[in-house]
Protein backbone atom coordinates (compact mmCIF):
# COMPACT_ATOMS: atom_id res chain seq x y z
CA UNK A 1 0.00 0.00 0.00
CA UNK A 2 1.29 3.43 -0.98
CA UNK A 3 1.75 5.63 2.15
CA UNK A 4 1.20 8.76 0.06
CA UNK A 5 -2.19 7.43 -1.05
CA UNK A 6 -3.18 6.80 2.57
CA UNK A 7 -2.14 10.33 3.52
CA UNK A 8 -4.21 11.73 0.64
CA UNK A 9 -7.16 9.62 1.70
CA UNK A 10 -6.91 10.98 5.24
CA UNK A 11 -6.73 14.62 4.12
CA UNK A 12 -8.35 15.10 0.70
CA UNK A 13 -11.86 16.50 0.58
CA UNK A 14 -14.86 15.65 -1.56
CA UNK A 15 -14.83 18.14 -4.45
CA UNK A 16 -18.56 18.18 -5.26
CA UNK A 17 -22.05 17.07 -4.30
CA UNK A 18 -23.87 16.86 -1.01
CA UNK A 19 -20.65 16.25 0.92
CA UNK A 20 -18.44 18.81 -0.85
CA UNK A 21 -15.63 19.92 1.45
CA UNK A 22 -15.87 16.90 3.76
CA UNK A 23 -12.78 14.72 4.10
CA UNK A 24 -13.04 11.51 2.12
CA UNK A 25 -12.65 9.36 5.23
CA UNK A 26 -15.48 11.29 6.91
CA UNK A 27 -17.98 10.42 4.19
CA UNK A 28 -20.78 8.17 5.44
CA UNK A 29 -20.43 4.54 4.47
CA UNK A 30 -23.96 4.61 3.02
CA UNK A 31 -22.87 7.35 0.61
CA UNK A 32 -19.81 5.35 -0.44
CA UNK A 33 -21.96 2.26 -1.05
CA UNK A 34 -24.34 4.40 -3.12
CA UNK A 35 -21.41 5.77 -5.16
CA UNK A 36 -20.16 2.24 -5.73
CA UNK A 37 -23.57 1.26 -7.09
CA UNK A 38 -23.63 4.28 -9.42
CA UNK A 39 -20.08 3.67 -10.59
CA UNK A 40 -16.97 5.27 -9.17
CA UNK A 41 -15.84 8.62 -10.62
CA UNK A 42 -12.75 8.76 -12.81
CA UNK A 43 -9.30 8.66 -11.22
CA UNK A 44 -7.88 9.97 -9.03
CA UNK A 45 -11.10 10.40 -6.98
CA UNK A 46 -12.77 7.07 -7.80
CA UNK A 47 -9.99 4.79 -6.53
CA UNK A 48 -9.69 6.87 -3.35
CA UNK A 49 -13.41 6.53 -2.67
CA UNK A 50 -13.24 2.78 -3.31
CA UNK A 51 -10.35 2.48 -0.85
CA UNK A 52 -12.24 4.62 1.70
CA UNK A 53 -15.18 2.21 1.45
CA UNK A 54 -12.93 -0.82 1.89
CA UNK A 55 -11.20 0.70 4.93
CA UNK A 56 -14.49 1.74 6.56
CA UNK A 57 -16.16 -1.59 5.78
CA UNK A 58 -13.36 -3.44 7.55
CA UNK A 59 -13.35 -1.11 10.57
CA UNK A 60 -9.85 0.24 9.92
CA UNK A 61 -10.58 3.98 9.85
CA UNK A 62 -8.62 4.46 13.05
CA UNK A 63 -5.40 3.68 11.16
CA UNK A 64 -5.69 6.93 9.18
CA UNK A 65 -6.23 9.25 12.17
CA UNK A 66 -2.47 9.74 12.81
CA UNK A 67 -2.09 10.84 9.17
CA UNK A 68 -4.60 13.69 9.42
CA UNK A 69 -3.36 17.25 9.12
CA UNK A 70 -5.14 20.18 10.71
CA UNK A 71 -7.29 22.11 8.23
Task: Please give a structural write-up.
By secondary structure, this protein is mostly helical. The chain has three helices and no strands. The chain is 45% helix and 0% strand. It is globular.
Describe this structure in a few short sentences.
Pfam families: QSregVF_b. The protein has helices at residues 3-11, 29-38, 45-57. With 71 residues, it is an all-alpha fold.
**What is the domain tally?**
1
| Biggest beta sheet attributes | none
> How many E strands?
0
Give Rg in angstroms: 11 Å
Shape: globular
Residue windows where pLDDT falls under 50 for at least 5 positions: none
Give the proportion of residues in helices.
Answer: 40-55%
**Count of DSSP helices?**
3
Pfam families: QSregVF_b
Protein name: Cytoplasmic protein
Organism: Ferrimonas balearica (strain DSM 9799 / CCM 4581 / KCTC 23876 / PAT)
InterPro entries: QSregVF_b
Task: Please specify the SSE layout and strand pairing.
Layout: H1 3-11, H2 29-38, H3 45-57
Keywords summarizing the entry:
71 residues; mainly alpha; 3 helices; globular; QSregVF_b; Cytoplasmic protein
Amino acid sequence: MDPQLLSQLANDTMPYGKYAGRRLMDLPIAYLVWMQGKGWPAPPLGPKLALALEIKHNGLSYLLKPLRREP
